[in-house]
Structure prediction request, 41 residues.
Amino acid sequence: MINWIFYPKSKRPPLIASKIVLVFEQAATSIDSRSHDLNSN
Prediction:
């Protein structure tokens, strides 16, 4: 689960924001840096 928040809190997030979060949630296991040991720097 990805924790995210939309501002202003008094408005609903646009559908595109929810879709973007869904894409990241679906890819989370393959991009999780805790499960990959990469030398990025």
User: Anything to note?
Assistant: The chain has a mean pLDDT of 85. The two ends are 27 Å apart (CA to CA). The chain is about 40% helix and 0% strand.
